[in-house]
């Protein structure tokens, strides 16, 4: 009798464990970004020209229900911007600004089960791993006027197509912008922030 009870208990535990595991999903993503720097100088506001970049990362999610999910991951993002024709951005005189971040988003996602569509929103922490500024003469310089961290807000949408294997392939479109300024100027009249659009293709491991 005890053996039957143990076997039944193991069966129930294994079944619930498998169901719990099926709520998790993981994905690989890569794509392109188009980013710019927004800045202010003594009350004047400006945005640099947009610059293309590259992004890639690993993601993970947990289904809270058929409608709601939590989603996070770790990404490499090439942000920055093009030239500032207005000469308002506090760090001036450069053709392109290359700012490379390792970013960790924490997102709440609303799923539309019948359409495979999802929309998401949440904060993102970014750590500046490298930076270089391209001069109009073609040289690169490093300027110590930027903070190592970027706290941003992120929102977007994704659509994943189911495959016969049970996994999914899909597209994701995101818009992100800095909440705090990314420079270390003491004056609040001088500030720089990141902004950008990101398009990725992803492969999701999900059952």
Short key terms for the protein model shown above:
207 residues; mainly beta; eight-stranded antiparallel β-barrel
**Ends apart, CA distance between termini:** 35 Å
Topology order in helix (H) and strand (E) letters: HEEEEEEEEEE
Radius of gyration: 22 Å
How many beta strands in the DSSP annotation?
Answer: 10
CATH topology: Porin
User: Mind telling me which CATH architecture this is?
Assistant: Beta Barrel
Q: What number is the mean pLDDT?
A: 88
**Structural class estimated from helices and strands:** mainly beta
Q: Can you tell me about this structure?
A:
With 207 residues, this protein is mainly β. The chain has a single domain, classed as Porin (Beta Barrel). The protein is 10% helix and 61% strand. The chain contains one helix and ten strands; from the N terminus they run αββββββββββ. Strands 1-3-4-5-6-8-9-10 form an eight-stranded antiparallel β-barrel. β5 and β6 form a beta hairpin. The longest helix has 20 residues. The radius of gyration is 22 Å and the shape is elongated. The N terminus is likely disordered.
Topology of helices and strands:
Elements lengths: L1 H20 L2 E18 L2 E4 L3 E13 L4 E14 L14 E17 L4 E18 L5 E2 L7 E14 L5 E11 L11 E16 L2
């Amino acid at each position: 009798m005890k053996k039957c009870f143990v076997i039944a208990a193991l069966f129930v535990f294994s079944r619930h464990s498998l169901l719990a595991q099926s709520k998790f999903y993981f994905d690989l993503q890569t794509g392109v970004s188009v980013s710019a720097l927004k800045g202010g100088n003594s009350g004047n506001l400006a945005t640099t020209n947009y610059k293309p970049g590259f992004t890639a990362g690993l993601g993970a999610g947990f289904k809270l229900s058929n409608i709601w999910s939590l989603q996070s991951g770790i990404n490499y993002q090439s942000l920055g911007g093009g030239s500032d024709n207005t000469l308002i951005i506090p760090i001036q005189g450069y053709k392109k600004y290359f700012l490379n971040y390792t970013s960790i988003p924490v997102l709440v996602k609303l799923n539309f089960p019948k359409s495979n569509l999802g929309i998401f929103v949440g904060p993102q922490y970014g750590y500046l791993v490298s930076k270089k500024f391209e001069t109009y003469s073609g040289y690169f310089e490093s300027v110590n006027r930027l903070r190592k961290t970027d706290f941003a807000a992120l929102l977007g949408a994704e659509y994943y197509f189911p495959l016969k294997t049970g996994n999914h392939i899909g597209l994701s479109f995101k818009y992100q912008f800095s909440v705090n300024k990314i420079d270390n100027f003491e004056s609040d009249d001088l500030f720089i922030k990141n902004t950008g659009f990101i398009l990725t293709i992803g492969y999701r491991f999900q059952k």
